[in-house]
Design a protein that fits this description.
Blueprint (H helix, E strand, L loop, with lengths): L3 E5 L4 H6 L3 H9 L8 H11 L2 E5 L4 H4 L6 H10 L4 E6 L7 H13 L4 E4 L1 H4 L9 H10 L3 E4 L22 H10 L5 E4 L6 H10 L3 E4 L10 H8 L6 E2 L9 H10 L4 H16 L2
Parallel strand pairs: 1-2, 2-3, 3-4, 4-5, 5-6, 6-7, 7-8
């Protein structure tokens, strides 16, 4: 069965350094050392897992004062390993205003990337803030999807003040607002969205342009209602993501198998929905 992993970070030196002060918090959160690997080693891990990976760029320059893990870098890594990394999400920092719009246009028109990923908690913004609507208008005009993190994060977890990050920036209601105001924009919510999983379920069901990938969370810990909804009313909405390198692939696949979904449901989750919704 083909497996498309929609949420893979490069796990190389530029990506680790981009996270700046968040690195120590993540090491504590995941209870392991948070260090980079060589590019070829990362690709070998994708190959061993049998996934078609989609990389994710990251730009925290405004909040973390670090150089971005840039779109050019991530697209370059993807192009060097086309057989295993099939596409890449671009990243732009909404707080950069017109520069963010220019970078968005570059990422799609010049680099031919898949769309855009946003991390509201780390970026210190909510996607439904009106000041960012010119950026959404520009992305909608480019006719590409966006992937937006929802729910809490290990970034800054346990640190004083969470390093200034506010969890409410990643509430499902922000995605609901964006989906209503930009009905032609395809939106993929990233992660289960704890502690607002029921709210995220409601948004995904109500908004025809909202979909959901459940990365960064061990499947055995999905709430009972979500496990039921995945096999039923959400089966055409759910897509697979790992949040690599957060959780080992062996554990993820084992726990997905233990949910004992029918093969046709797993086909949708692992590849058919991503193929249909994102053209992968």
């Amino acid at each position: 069965m083909r497996i498309i992993d929609l949420h893979c970070y490069p796990n190389t030196e530029p990506w680790i350094k981009c996270q700046g002060p968040y690195v120590d918090a993540l090491a504590k959160y995941w209870k392991r050392q948070w260090t980079w690997k060589q590019e070829d080693d990362v690709v070998r891990e994708f190959a061993a897992a049998g996934v078609d990976a989609v990389l994710v760029a990251l730009d925290l320059e405004t909040t973390a004062k670090t150089p971005p893990c840039s779109n050019d870098y991530v697209r370059g890594m993807q192009q060097r390993h086309k057989d295993r990394i099939i596409q890449a999400w671009a990243a732009v920092d909404p707080l950069k205003g017109d520069a963010a719009i220019a970078e968005a246009q570059h990422a799609i028109r010049d680099l031919k990337m898949l769309g855009f990923h946003f991390h509201p908690i780390m970026g210190h913004f909510a996607v439904n803030e009106r000041r960012f609507y010119p950026l959404w208008e520009a992305i909608a005009a480019l006719k590409v999807p966006v992937m937006i993190d929802v729910g809490t994060t290990g970034m800054g977890a346990g640190m004083p003040g969470g390093l200034g990050a506010k969890l409410r920036h990643a509430h499902p209601s922000c995605i609901d607002d964006l989906a209503a105001d930009f009905p032609d924009l395809t939106i993929v919510a990233a992660h289960p969205g704890w502690p607002w999983i029921d709210e995220m379920t409601a948004v995904a069901l109500h908004k025809g342009n909202v979909f959901w990938e459940l990365s960064g969370w061990a499947p055995k810990y999905f709430p009972v209602q979500l496990k039921t909804d995945i096999r039923a009313r959400l089966q055409d909405k759910i897509m697979f993501g790992s949040d690599y390198p957060s959780i080992p692939y062996a554990r993820l696949f084992q726990e997905w198998r233990e949910l004992r979904y029918a093969d046709d449901v797993m086909e949708k989750i692992f590849h058919r929905n991503a193929e249909r919704i994102l053209g992968l």
